[in-house]
Amino acid sequence: MDSRRNRDRLSTLPEHLLVPIISNLPFEEAVRTSVLAKPWKHLYHGTTNVSFKESEFVKRTVSSSEESLNEARAAFVRFVVNWASRFSGDVIQSFELRLSKPFGFEAEIKHLIEFAVSKQVKILVLDFSDLSCTASNQARPAVLFQLPECVYNQTAIESLKLFACDFDPLRLANPCSFKSVCFGHTQLGRIMTLLSKSPLLESLTVRNCWNVNLESITGVNNRLRELVFENCDFGTEYTLLDLPNIKIFKYTGSFHYFQFLTVNRRMEEAYLDYGAETDDEIGQLFCDVLYDLLSARKLTVCPFLIKAIKDSDDPVKLNAPMETRHLVIKTSLSPDEFVGIRLMINSCPELETLTLQMLPPVPVARTNPGFNPKSYWAFPISHKCLKKTLKVVEVRNFSGGTYELIVLRYLIRSGRVLERVDLYLPVGTSESEKSSVRATMSTLGDEGVASSKRLRIRQHDG
Predict the structure, then answer these.
(1) What are residue 230's DSSP bridge partners?
(2) How far apart are CA 154 and CA 136, in angstroms?
(3) Are the beta carbons of 258 and 235 closer than 8 angstroms?
(4) Residue 307 has what DSSP assignment?
(5) Distance of alpha carbon 336 from the chain centroid
(6) C-alpha–C-alpha distance, residues 306 and 302, integer Å
(7) CB 257 within 8 A of CB 237
(8) Are the C-beta atoms of 243 and 269 separated by less than 8 Å?
(9) Helix, strand, coil percentages for the chain (3-state, nearest 5)
(10) Which of 231, 196, 230, 202 has its CA nearest to residue 216?
(11) Would you say 52 and 82 are in contact if contact means Cβ atoms under 8 Å apart?
(12) pTM here?
């Protein structure tokens, strides 16, 4: 009875109050409100947060022909154009359009972009990348979508996300209001021009782009708080970064050298995943990057980095103690990673949480690591964080492998203030495999009593 009364009370609200309420819903949900009652039928035409995604309108199956998909795309575009023609408001807060293979619909798309800009849109998302490919294996688009002139002349957009679009910063008429910019699947030969015209920029993300001629980020962009690169091809040998206010720095892809002139002394997160390994001796370069990012409270490192840093000038510790509280190590726990893992633990004297993100084992040529891997962790070497600060150890994708157990026993034996060991099983683990893991867990204390009396070991589903 109360729920019906509440619905009736909501229905009595005037339209100028209902539209802001609907605008806070995801656009798909806002459209569904049109069936709630007759007065609500056209309310979603006034919503100020708009998202049109081909994936939500065009259903793909294995048997879908390209002809049927093209027909569905055409119907999707007509729906969007129809919505725009019936829009009843004066302003749009956000406008998102995701359409693969936009060619053939250029006129309609440019009309929609002009419509959004005319409504003083603040958040504009245009994604014309190929839905049939994942982000990692998507080929460079043969042709990029050409943006209409209104995008370069506008002054209201604060957040801009462009995928598979040709964006030319030289055409920007005025200094931009951009606070957040994200590019994907495009070339960025003139990214320095964009930065010079974006003095308010706080977040820059670049994914799967090429010819990224980023020489430096300095001076005018000192508001930058988040900087993310994923799988990019750079047109410069190195990049200078002057980032006094940076909070988050993330890099995924082939090694590119960043020289940090200044960084925030209270960084929230640094993420370093250099993917495929090379034969280059760059262990000291990795150590230099870690030194620049030593203030990061959360740090994620990859197997390549872990293996390489042991060949730096000091194979025991980094250039200076890290201030990291949460260290995430992506690893397969192969013996050639052991020295680097111990080096990282030794270099984080204030570490509170250690996460081992287990990766599938990678076949490698049999080489002698110079020590017995089964006894390496048996030596009574205890690092400062194990004595004073480390309280939580997590193992993601735990399978109970030999080296997983050896490392865990070392941490349990040495962690004097350890409170929790959380073991997360891979998604899809069968009941029999869970039982086997539980039996394995019961052996973790067999080789000695845990140093911490408050320790609890728990198993979790992935």
Answers:
(1) 207, 252
(2) 32
(3) no
(4) H
(5) 28
(6) 6
(7) yes
(8) no
(9) 35, 20, 45
(10) 196
(11) no
(12) 0.88
β-bridge partners, 187? 210
**What domains sit in the chain, N to C, each tagged with a CATH number?**
265-362+373-462 (3.80.10)
**pLDDT tens sequence for the chain (462 residues):** 455 555 555 555 555 555 555 555 555 554 555 444 555 545 555 577 888 999 888 877 756 788 888 898 999 999 899 888 888 788 899 999 999 989 999 999 999 999 999 999 999 999 999 866 555 555 677 789 999 999 999 999 999 999 999 999 999 988 899 999 999 999 999 999 999 999 999 999 999 999 999 999 988 888 999 999 999 999 999 999 999 999 999 999 999 999 999 998 899 999 999 986 666 678 888 989 999 999 999 999 999 999 998 877 776 678 889 999 999 999 999 999 999 999 999 999 999 999 999 998 776 556 677 788 888 998 877 799 999 999 999 999 999 889 999 999 999 999 999 999 999 998 888 888 888 887 877 777 555 567 788 899 998 886
Radius of gyration of the chain, Cα coordinates, nearest whole angstrom: 27
Structure tokens at 201: 């920029």
Comparing CA positions, the residue from 286, 289, 292 lying closest to residue 263 is: 292
Rounded to the nearest 10°, the torsion over CA 174, 179, 184, 188 is: 40
Residue owning tokens 């640094």 = 270
Q: Any long-range contacts for 10-15 (C-beta under 8 Å, 24+ apart)? A: 11/36, 11/37, 11/39, 11/40, 15/39, 15/43, 15/46
- CA gap 293, 241 in Å, rounded: 12
| 8 Å CB contact between 202 and 179 | yes
DSSP secondary structure code for residue 276 in this structure: S
Which tokens hold the place of 314?
């000091």
Enumerate residues 6+ apart whose C-beta is below 8 A from 8: none
DSSP state of 35: G
CB atoms within 10 A of CB 4: 8
CB atoms inside a 10 Å sphere around CB 450: 19
